[in-house]
Design goal:
The protein is of the alpha+beta class. It has one domain. Helix content is 20%, strand content 24%. It has 5 helices and 12 strands. The protein is elongated and about 80 Å long.
Length: 198
């Protein structure tokens, strides 16, 4: 199987101030039906999450693993890998939570399905009730999709006031490193994006 490194969101802990602008921007970029994020019709449901450990804050997002464990364990094949990353096909997801257990970075979450500001309910078997069923909110797997629908790239990266987030493209980084190594071997100074020699 041909596995290539895919882009992912990287965060610099020393630059993160814990403002949660990334979560709000992510939620706004993915709110269904054009509703206003945080309103009754559009709850804030980010696909990356700020984690605090003491004085350190860091957003956690899907790393779009090459051999995605979440995709490997999904019983309905609702999670697949393509050239742009690991994708959840919500129409196939049954909310079973196996992807949450398999994710090595804890980036997978279950999100309530909401329509017109209310959770969508579904019936599940419960032997402890008189009719054998109970109504619970429908849940679907949710994770960073690198804002596939946004031509300008991930909303979290654009919203971060300190530049702590970056969309890393491993293939581009590899090309740059190879170029720098070739230039160094040839004795040519390597120039960065600002034109400074190193």
């Amino acid at each position: 199987m041909n596995q290539s490194l895919r882009p992912f969101i990287a965060a610099r802990a020393e630059a993160c101030i814990g403002c949660r602008a990334c979560e709000l921007a992510c939620g706004a970029a993915h709110v269904p039906g054009g509703a206003t994020v945080g309103s009754l019709g559009g709850p804030v449901v980010p696909r990356l999450y700020l984690v605090r450990a003491g004085a350190v804050c860091l957003p956690v997002a899907c790393r779009h693993c090459e051999a995605a464990p979440c995709a490997a364990v999904c019983p309905t094949a609702a999670i697949r890998c393509d050239a742009t990353g690991v994708v959840v096909e919500t129409g196939r997801c049954i909310g079973c939570k196996t992807c949450l257990a398999a994710c090595p970075v804890g980036a997978m979450a279950l999100a309530e399905v909401v329509e017109n500001g209310r959770p969508v309910m579904h019936r599940i078997v419960d032997a402890g009730t008189p009719d054998g069923f109970v109504e619970t909110p429908a849940l679907l797997a949710s994770k960073c999709d690198l804002c596939r629908e946004r031509s300008s790239g991930p909303a979290c990266v654009a919203a971060c006031p300190t530049g702590a987030l970056e969309c890393v493209d491993p293939a581009r980084l590899r090309r740059e490193r190879i170029r720098a190594a070739a230039l160094a071997l040839a004795g040519t100074p390597v120039r960065d994006d600002r034109g400074a020699a190193s």
